[in-house]
Amino acid sequence: MSVQQRTSDGGEALEVWIDQDLCTGDGICAQYAPEVFELDIDGLAYVKSADGELLQGRGATTPVPLPLLTDVVDSARECPGECIHVRRVSDKVEVYGPDVE
Length: 101
Known about the structure:
It holds the Pfam family Fer4_15. By secondary structure, the protein is an alpha+beta fold.
């Protein structure tokens, strides 16, 4: 596991995904973290791979780089569609987003 993917408290690597069925296309996520999120021609937001490729597969995930963790978390908190999910890679438990317990 690279240091880039560790959380700020030294915890486990995180990944993020978007539920396009709930996406409202507001683009707030792309404003907060354009390196991670992008609106496609269909008006919905998707995550991007580390090399900037749009990942359009259903449930596609991408690692959350440590320098962008705050921006990704803010995206999840501010999303009007409540469709951004941030979870631990190891056990898939959501740590930020609408399904956090």
